[in-house]
Specification:
heterodimer, A: alpha/beta, 10 strands, B: 49% helix, binds guanosine-5'-triphosphate, binds magnesium ion
């Protein structure tokens, strides 16, 4: 919230000299957008994306009428916010999960510690409750100590079966075997929890490609930590090049990270945000609302999400 | 990438131009140094360039490196208590940053140096967190004191202190659950753990280490500030430096808190932990991939 106040204040400072009302001039807009750009970078929006975004806004803001009860500062902010919602996919339908498969196969990928395993369980829980799906969780992380146990524990908590194999098994085999197991168990939604990996680790990236090639998932979701900084774009691009992402889950949105990384990823790769994760509890996941994220990025807090959580 | 572009384009004889300043600014921002620190740095460099009558881009770049190294402060090794027979280290940070893994790496290092190390599994909340630490303990042959899932973390820490003292361990490292710094209850829980250590170990905890992963952006400073405010910090560990992220938040964190960075994590294996060196950290910012 403090951030928003400071952005509003800074914009108001800039427009102080603006006589009365009228049209926003290029000079007014330029100095205002400098502040907006800094605010975006503080929100972890990628530099280049911030610049590109500000250019878009500039076209709309110059010559805009300032009228009604809006101050010039508020006017600029509202244009910024509208545009943010638009870029985040406000008016398209890509933000929804594809559940047309039979079975549906959803693979989660991402950097170490991003929140894949937790999100896998949350997604299973969500799909079972909201869509009446019969999910199967698949433990395909053979590297992190106790990763399989972690997923099994979560599965038990939400009463969703977990397919796993003993230590030393091959993650590709595990996923392939899981498909058979799902058929036997009449599970119609298969969620693959893969190991965390760094996007430039070639051997590990190849593994996830191999899984994708063998299993052909309908959804390949990048789990992206809301706290990620400037490198988010590079990470998403690398994963996208390797396994063609169909969406992302923005995790750890329950803190005070502004989540600008999501805007960057969406802008550069076109990969839509499909869910936001908001806590460690297994119901702390919700569909993506672009307007809420837009407010967050601008530092306006996230009133709706907080209300939902209460 | 931007850094590498900068380092290749700045020749010894290149003069100082507006483009140079823009490039510097961009490369710092792209490394997550953060707008406030960057604006401050560039202003400071411009002043120095005037005062010291710098003429070339290379001179400016050298000055930038000096400033960056200065911001990082001195490196310092883990503090082992001289007064207390048992040194206690509390490791904290947000979810998934690499606490448990870094603890295993530090424990392996310390026991290799001849210390008798013990670990406390005070993350009783996250699924299989206790198992994870136990697996590490077995791998590195270091005992792990634990209780049941959902046990009171304070009780685990108390147990572990007793056990460490009884068995003559000289270092106890406490693994805590990940917590976002904005969660009031979880921060209160941490304060309680801290108080228990203070009560039973003279001058403890001797290290309060926050673990932040390199891909983190501007939230890193908020994390460090809040943890420092609530229980204090003696050091920072930056993990996942094997990624393409540069960890540029480090400058604001060390400058703001005056707390040193102790280690850099560079992978998932037990040996992937190196003592922090400001010079090479700054060099890595400018390194070409
Ligand atoms: N506060 C918060 N914590 C979360 C959220 N999602 C996951 N976590 C926590 O983040 C940490 C890492 O989550 P995991 O699900 O283990 O992450 P992962 O991507 O599977 O990790 P690796 O398998 O090691 O790569 C755990 O402490 C989780 O409880 C979230 O939305 N909010
Ligand atoms: N590539 C890489 N991965 C790391 C590094 N440090 C930790 N990890 C991985 O990051 C993930 C999370 O590490 P943990 O040690 O479980 O993190 P944590 O902070 O204890 O997580 P919570 O207890 O859930 O909050 C695991 O997959 C680790 O293997 C590192 O330096 N490099
Ligand atoms: Mg996992
Ligand atoms: Mg842990």
């Amino acid at each position: 919230m403090a951030m928003f106040e400071s952005l509003t204040k800074r914009l108001e400072g800039i427009f102080q000299n603006l006589e009365g009302r009228g049209k926003l001039t290029e000079d007014d807009v330029n100095s205002a957008l400098r502040e907006v750009r800094i605010a975006l970078i503080e929100a972890d929006v990628n530099l280049k994306v911030a610049r590109q975004f500000v250019d878009r806004v500039k076209q709309k803001a110059i010559g805009a009428d300032v009228m009604g009860s809006l101050s010039p500062a508020q006017q600029v902010l509202s244009i910024v916010q509208e545009e943010l919602v638009e870029v985040l996919g406000g008016s398209d339908d890509k933000n929804k999960l594809d559940l047309s498969g039979n079975p549906n196969i959803i693979m989660l990928v991402g950097l170490n510690g991003a929140g894949k395993t937790t999100s896998a369980a949350k997604l299973a829980n969500y799909l079972r409750k909201q869509h009446g799906s019969r999910p199967l969780l698949v433990a395909a992380d053979m590297y992190r100590p106790a990763a399989v146990n972690q997923l099994k524990t979560l599965g038990k908590q939400i009463q969703v079966p977990v397919y796993s194999e003993p230590a030393g098994s091959d993650p590709v085999d595990i996923c392939v075997h899981a498909l058979d197991y799902a058929r036997e168990q009449a599970c119609n939604t298969i969620i693959l929890d893969t190991a965390g990996r760094i996007n430039i680790d070639e051997r590990m990236m190849q593994e996830v490609v191999n899984i994708r090639d063998r299993v052909r998932p309908h959804e390949v979701l990048l789990v992206a930590d809301a706290m990620t900084g400037q490198e988010a774009v590079r990470v998403a691009q690398d994963f996208n090049d390797a396994v063609s992402l169909t969406g992302m889950i923005l995790s750890k949105m329950d803190g005070d990270a502004r989540g600008g990384a999501a805007l960057s990823i969406r802008t550069v790769t076109g990969v839509p945000v499909k869910f936001m994760a908001l806590g460690e509890k297994l119901d702390a996941i919700q569909p993506f609302y672009p307007d809420r994220l837009a407010q967050r990025i601008l530092g306006m807090g996230d009133v709706m999400t907080l209300i939902d959580q209460a | 990438q931007l850094f590498s572009r900068m380092s290749t384009t700045v020749e010894e004889t290149d003069l100082i131009t507006d483009t140079l300043w823009d490039d510097l600014e961009e490369s710092l921002l792209a490394a997550d140094v953060g707008p406030r620190t960057v604006i401050w740095l560039i202003e400071r460099l411009r002043e120095r360039a005037d005062a010291e009558q710098m003429r070339t881009g290379a001179q400016v770049q050298r000055a930038l490196r000096e400033e960056l190294v200065d911001l990082l402060g001195d490196s310092s090794p883990l503090h082992l208590s001289q007064r207390s027979p048992l040194t206690v280290m509390l490791v904290i940070g947000v979810n998934g940053s690499g606490k448990t893994t870094s603890i295993a790496k530090m424990a392996a290092r310390l026991s290799h140096e001849g210390h008798k190390v013990m670990l406390a599994a005070a993350d009783t909340f996250r699924a299989a967190a206790i198992d994870q630490l136990k697996v590490w303990g077995e791998r590195i042959s270091v005992p792990v004191i634990s209780q049941q899932p959902n046990a009171d973390p304070g009780a685990v820490v108390y147990d572990a202190i007793q056990a460490a003292q009884a068995r003559g361990s000289d270092v106890l490292i406490v693994d805590t659950a990940g917590r976002l710094q904005t969660k009031y209850n979880l921060m209160e829980e941490l304060k309680k753990i801290n108080k228990i250590i203070q009560r039973f170990v003279p001058d403890g905890p001797h290290e309060l280490l926050i673990v932040i992963d390199a891909p983190t952006g501007q939230n890193a400073l908020l994390q460090a500030r809040k943890f420092a405010e609530d229980i204090g910090l003696t050091g920072v560990i930056i993990t996942k430096m094997d990624s393409t992220a540069k960890g540029g938040f480090a400058f604001a964190v060390t400058d703001d808190l005056g707390v040193p960075i102790k280690f850099i994590g560079t992978g998932e294996k037990v040996e992937d932990l190196i003592p922090f060196d400001p010079q090479s950290f700054v060099a890595a910012l400018f390194a070409q991939e």
